[in-house]
């Protein structure tokens, strides 16, 4: 059931902003976060099924079942997208739903689900934007070593070929990986995400094999397109914006270090065909990079048709060598500065407004990230493939969800995106995260990012005020004043 409510008026008045004709407007989800049906129709077990089953790993003991039951309710969700005026839908395909063992026999029932989803989207005038990997590695491949093994990259390419062969007649825009940093660092070093490992050497090997898998999958997709529909292949980074807290040598050095392990470790191989020397030196005691084989970087750095950016907020860091005296102690700490935390890098908050995730809000970071990616990948179309915020939404007595903070967040970031376009960035589209509230990984169902509210007891969908607002922008291409 979907409930529609008219949003309250907003009192903030800014200049009207108009996006270029043909700009892509959409929203995004991920398979494990929305599909549910984790044991239905031959689906295999993923690392997130295993991880979520471990006590203490997920807030509230939540799992991916039933999520938002998108597997069964997708027609309702497509109708909702159409009502919201979305022209595109970015979703992920669950590898274990298509290849339950990660390789070998194809599960026809799994392919059939995505057949129905894609056909339903096209019938509604919504372009499908599938992502091949949004973190749900088949457990059988993890049991064999997961992304620390080169073989997993080969299996990923085989999976890509299967999916392209099934849907390439109707899909133009493909994404290979979503946020390889999350998969490698959060999954293999920090242990906060599946598979829950905590080894730096494993994380470095996983990062490389993820990128190699991207390159091999891109080859497979393009090979399958010979003589057929155009196939445009891209990759999505959650490009971080890391800023020095103070204008000191120590803080600038800390920002450079954090940027290396957060961004350049992933973007330099893809965009420049190399690993950054300072990052290799930093991890020389952890890994000899023996996983890097001759020819790998050429595969990884094959030209992209598009590059996706997932952005939620910037981060500031101070250099421990310079001390943190003079900084309000309540602001020191914050979100860990990724792999840099043990190397003299101290995360510091600015005291800005924060989302329910604790992330500080500063839309100028989106502009900065877009300009940087445009500079580093000239001629490549850019898309904001995720942008949004979690807040503590509640259904009001009038039946609406009056999430003014999220509307303000989206408005500010879209204005930053438009400013990037005005400065020459080839930004071609924007996907709001997320279409609807869902399973938010280690936070379970405790954090709500959707522009559509989901009552997890009844699965009732209610468009939030931010969803109504975004629908108006998507239909007109205009940010109202």
Give a short synopsis of this structure.
It holds the Pfam family Glyco_hydro_1. This protein is 37% helix and 15% strand.
Structure description:
- By secondary structure, this protein is α/β, with parallel strands linked by helices.
- The protein has helices at 31-34, 47-52, 70-83, 95-98, 108-123, 139-143, 150-167, 180-188, 200-224, 249-272, 277-282, 296-300, 364-376, 404-422, 465-476, and strands spanning 2-3, 17-18, 24-28, 88-92, 127-133, 173-178, 232-237, 242-244, 306-310, 315-319, 345-348, 381-386, 427-433, 452-455, 460-463, 478-479.
- The strands form four sheets. An eight-stranded parallel β-barrel has the order 3-4-5-6-7-9-12-13, surrounded by six helices.
- α14 links the parallel β12 (381-386) and β13 (427-433).
- The longest helix has 25 residues, at 200-224.
- The protein is globular.
- Residues 1-11 have low confidence and may be disordered.
- This is Beta-glucosidase.
Strand order of the largest sheet: 3-4-5-6-7-9-12-13
CATH class equals Alpha Beta
Mind telling me the CATH superfamily name?
Answer: Glycosidases
Number of helices: 15
CATH second-level architecture: Alpha-Beta Barrel
Strand content: 15-25%
- Overall geometry: globular
Main sheet, how many strands, which sense, barrel? 8 strands, parallel, barrel
Provide the number of structural domains: 1
In angstroms, what is the radius of gyration? 21 Å
Structural class: alpha/beta
Distance between the termini: 33 Å
Report the oligomer: single chain
Enzyme class: hydrolase
Pfam family, one: Glyco_hydro_1
Binding site for substrate: 33, 134, 178, 312, 433, 440-441
Family: Belongs to the glycosyl hydrolase 1 family.
């Amino acid at each position: 059931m979907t409930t529609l409510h008219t949003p309250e008026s907003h009192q903030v008045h800014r200049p009207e902003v108009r996006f270029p004709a043909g700009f892509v407007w959409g929203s995004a989800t991920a398979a494990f976060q929305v599909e549910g049906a984790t044991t239905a129709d031959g689906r295999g077990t993923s690392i997130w099924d295993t991880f979520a089953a471990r006590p203490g790993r997920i807030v509230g003991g939540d799992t991916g079942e039933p999520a938002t039951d998108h597997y069964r309710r997708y027609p309702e969700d497509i109708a909702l997208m159409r009502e919201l005026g979305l022209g595109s839908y970015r979703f992920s395909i669950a590898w274990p739903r298509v290849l339950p063992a990660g390789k070998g026999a194809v599960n026809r029932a799994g392919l059939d689900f995505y057949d129905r989803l894609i056909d339903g989207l096209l019938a509604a005038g919504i372009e499908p934007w599938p992502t091949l990997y949004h973190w749900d590695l088949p457990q059988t491949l993890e049991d064999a070593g997961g992304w620390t093994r080169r073989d997993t990259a080969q299996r990923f390419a085989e999976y890509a070929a299967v999916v392209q062969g099934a849907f390439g007649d109707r899909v133009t825009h493909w994404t290979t990986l979503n946020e390889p940093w999350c998969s490698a660092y959060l999954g293999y070093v920090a242990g906060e995400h599946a598979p829950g490992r905590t080894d730096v050497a494993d994380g470095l090997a996983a990062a490389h094999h993820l990128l190699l898998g991207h390159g091999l999958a891109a080859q497979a997709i393009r090979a399958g397109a010979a003589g057929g529909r155009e196939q445009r292949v891209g990759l999505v980074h959650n490009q971080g914006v890391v800023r020095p807290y103070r204008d000191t040598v120590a803080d600038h050095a800390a920002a450079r270090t954090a940027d290396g392990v957060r961004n350049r470790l992933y973007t330099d191989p893809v965009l420049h065909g190399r690993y950054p020397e300072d990052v290799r030196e930093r991890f020389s005691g952890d890994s000899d990079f023996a996983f890097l084989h001759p020819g790998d970087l050429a595969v990884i750095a094959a030209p992209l048709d598009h590059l996706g950016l997932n952005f939620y907020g910037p981060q500031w860091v101070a250099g421990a060598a310079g001390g943190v005296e003079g900084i309000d102690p309540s602001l020191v700490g914050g979100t860990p500065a990724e792999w840099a935390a043990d190397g003299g890098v101290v995360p510091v908050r600015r005291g800005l407004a924060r989302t329910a995730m604790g992330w500080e809000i500063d839309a100028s970071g989106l502009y900065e990230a877009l300009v940087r990616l445009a500079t580093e990948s000239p001629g490549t179309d850019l898309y904001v493939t995720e942008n949004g915020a979690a807040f503590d939404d509640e259904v009001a007595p009038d039946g609406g969800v009056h999430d003014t903070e999220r509307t303000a967040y989206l408005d500010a970031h879209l204005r930053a995106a438009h400013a990037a376009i005005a400065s020459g960035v080839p930004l071609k589209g924007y996907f709001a995260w997320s279409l609807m509230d869902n399973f938010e990984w280690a936070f379970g169902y405790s954090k709500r990012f959707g522009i559509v509210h989901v009552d997890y007891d009844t699965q009732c969908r209610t468009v939030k005020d931010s969803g109504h607002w975004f629908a108006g922008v998507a239909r007109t291409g205009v940010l109202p004043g």
